[in-house]
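Shipment paperwork, digital attachment
Item: protein structure file
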Amino acid sequence: MINILDRTKLFEMISKLRADDQPLFGVMSPQHMVEHLSFTISFSNGNDPQQQHYPAEKEQKIKAFILGTDQDMPISFKSPVLPAEGLPSLKHKDLAEAVTQLQKELNDFDAYFKRQPAEQPVNPTMGALDYEEWLRFHNRHFSHHLKQFNLL
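Attachment content:
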């Protein structure tokens, strides 16, 4: 599993992506995947606060699976913040710009919790998470998508 705090290793892996790489599973392009990771980091760094989408009982079941196990994340899971059909529109002009944005979001994540270590930003599928829970989620989520492009 990748550790998002090891930025050197993380971005060495991501630097191997090419815009025309095909995923081993799913339909995201490399740029979609990088923008998707930035999007989810923004939930946890104060840049894009989210609302809870599920009842507490369902959130706890998802949280127990995602944070409480080491099983691979499900390939077919569809977050309620993503379009019901198709992929979200790309926000950046190219993959390199998307990677730069991901670096910014990760730096903001570090700064956010340094300033406010007790904060618990909302994950749309698991509810409020503390720093350690967000870190575990991001490590698992990044690993899932790095595997998508055979980078891990």
